[in-house]
């Protein structure tokens, strides 16, 4: 009579990395009632793996009372499945159904430099991060600073980007299980297992420390404080709130409103009225932008357990999209009132606002996927046009005049 032994992590076999297949060698250990030990090896067998071709994976086969049957069972089990990294969570490793006789002990991805850089860009969400870079640079350039400091400008832009990369990384670590349930996020770097959670955490910590340090040493305390607060707000408040209440959209918009304020603070050392006007622009714009995007993803959000307005109260989304598009109307006048632009901008901005309102109204009038998509695309074109107009109408700061006392002393 035989009984099954538990797998140990240092045991064989090791699957060697190949381009199109993985060679599997295993050893089955059995013990009879008299305590005699015997070993039988499963001959090397090549199995086609698609998604795991770039990984180096350690797999251990647990012994069975019927060695021939379990050997064939293992071979059949592997050959009939198309393993992805997600599948290893389903293979028993002390949990689940052990009838297959297979346990996944360790998954250690081996990535080339190019693959590693792509993994980091995915963790940082660099496509989304490009908006952060632009808005931070824009905040610096719109600030009424007489002298342009290149070092402060670069530290401000890249330091803020690294801080946001840190927040995005930990957001994905926290939401890895939910991302695996959504069609939109299923192929992200962590759900696919192309990089380990520990590796991602190290990248996130390094990005956060480097980004905040760049702002602290190369810019000023205020910019560093805003960036650090943004990391905490995104990871500790916004992310957990996404599964609690639809108000998370309004909380998360604060995160996107802070980067231009960091840029402004990097130039002036303070948060004058103009900085708050820029923050208001980004905050208001994000809400109709996201609401129109989330409409077509409402079933995906519901499947993952998120509580967005689009899946909790979908009938409210079109009206909210139109309402927050209308809230953009006074932003141009606000920028002119604070002195960062001329009053002509208050008039020119209405032309851009009208298109955003038009797409929002069409979505409100007919709640369809097509109109939702048009409203989303309208928001994408709105922001760069609005920012370019603002830059064209920027007021030029006048250098401070020396007082008569200082002139007389000279």
How would you characterize the overall build of this protein?
There is one protein chain. With 410 residues, the chain is mostly helical. It folds into three domains: 97 residues, no CATH class; 113 residues, Tetracycline Repressor, domain 2, CATH 1.10.357.140; 127 residues, Four Helix Bundle (Hemerythrin (Met), subunit A) (Up-down Bundle), CATH 1.20.120. It has 16 helices and five strands. Strands 1-4-5 form a three-stranded antiparallel sheet, with no helix packed on it. Strand 2 and strand 3 form a beta hairpin. The longest helix has 25 residues. It is flat and about 55 Å long. 38% of the residues are buried.
A few lines on this structure:
With 410 residues, the protein is mainly alpha-helical. It contains 16 helices and five strands. A hairpin with a 5-residue loop joins strand 2 and strand 3.
What attributes does this structure have?
410 residues; single chain; two-stranded antiparallel sheet; Tetracycline Repressor, domain 2; 16 helices
- Which regions have little confidence, pLDDT < 50, spanning 5+ residues? 1-67, 77-108, 402-410
CATH topology of the largest domain: Four Helix Bundle (Hemerythrin (Met), subunit A)
Number of E-type strands: 5
Average pLDDT number: 77
Strand and helix map with partners:
Layout: E1 14-15, E2 21-31, E3 37-48, E4 55-61, H1 67-79, E5 102-109, H2 113-124, H3 126-142, H4 150-174, H5 176-179, H6 197-218, H7 221-241, H8 248-268, H9 273-295, H10 298-304, H11 309-312, H12 317-326, H13 331-338, H14 344-365, H15 369-392, H16 404-409
Antiparallel strand pairs: 1-4, 2-3, 4-5
Helix pairs in contact: 2-3, 3-4, 3-8, 4-6, 4-7, 4-8, 6-7, 7-8, 8-9, 9-12, 9-13, 9-15, 12-14, 13-14, 14-15
